[in-house]
Amino acid sequence: MEAILRRLVRPAALLAATLFLAAATPLISLGQPLALDATIPLPKTLGRLDHLDLDTKRSLVFLAEYGNNTVDVIDWQKRSRIKRLSGFDRPQGVAYDAKNDLLLVANGGDGTLRFFSAATYKPLGSLALGSDADNIVLDPRNGLALVGHDHGAIAIIDAARRVKLADIPLPAHPEGMAVDAASGKLYVNVPDAHEVDVIDLDHRSVSARWRDLRAADNYPLALEPDGKLLAVVFRNPPLLVLYDRESGAELGDSPACRDADGVFFDAAHKQIYATCGSGEIGLFTIQPGQRAGYFAAPPIPTQPGARTGLFVPALGRLFVARPSGSITATLPHEIATYLLDQTVPGPNGTSTDTAAALLVYRVGP
Q1: b/e map of 302-333 (b: 16 or more CB within 10 Å)?
Q2: Is the confidence at residue 66, as pLDDT, over 60?
Q3: Which of 260, 285, 289, 337 is deepest in the core (most CB within 10 A)?
Q4: CATH 2.130.10.10 correct for 2-363
């Protein structure tokens, strides 16, 4: 094993990769790793779908519907939409703030962050962040909301008081991001600047910039729970790259599905999932002899355009948002992703009429 690693892994990453592989075990089952548990219809939902989050108190899924200017509230156990909130301006980010029992919605159109009671959905106010308010993550250490916005900034928000505490400038618009609670660092993909930025949240400043990237268009990222890995999925070319998140050293890579928008570690099953607009869930499993352990396995088919997802380890569920009118023709994936309508021409000039839905996958077997 050590001889293989010497040939495949850069010397700077050898020790970390060796330790990781020593602790890893092969996937214990050859059964289907993900099984479709439910397809929850979302009628009268057109266009692009964006971020999702879970109300952990009530076990409800929030879905930002960018093209519809709405946010759906979905009871995934009863398999039905129970509420539709409207009046948004290109909603992109949603987050459930358990500490304050709030729903937060970031709007790409008017650049506002809006606040709602998660119990009654009553509007509680808004903050103007600039433009293109997007992804929201919560700092698990203190509950502060971190919102990507504008041409390059992370806003730090006290949701209880609905005030902005700080803005951390970035070189371009931020995309996927995640907080490491142990170190107090926020990892951010900045695809237009071709870098991954590391933010020291306590000092509210960028502490590192990873610029020697293997590919372009780095949108989703994820942190390994109780580990040292950072996973980034690139779109051009489609590639999963694993990094040591302390040093930024590259530990391994594997081919990925196209147009990825979400990536998630499943620590219990030693798997990584990537939700992709190419119409599949990329699956990466622990396999001995591979760089950093994870290697691409056969993907799980979904539908073209179904690229945003949410993995909830405590539920053993992966939620994937399927837009309406998913294209089945052979078209460039950029077109298949964004031209989503219920009357998009199909492969023979016909029209697809696929309704939007929330796909619920159960981790199996």
Answers
A1: bbbbbbbbbbbeebebbbbbbbbbbbbeeeeb
A2: yes
A3: 260
A4: yes
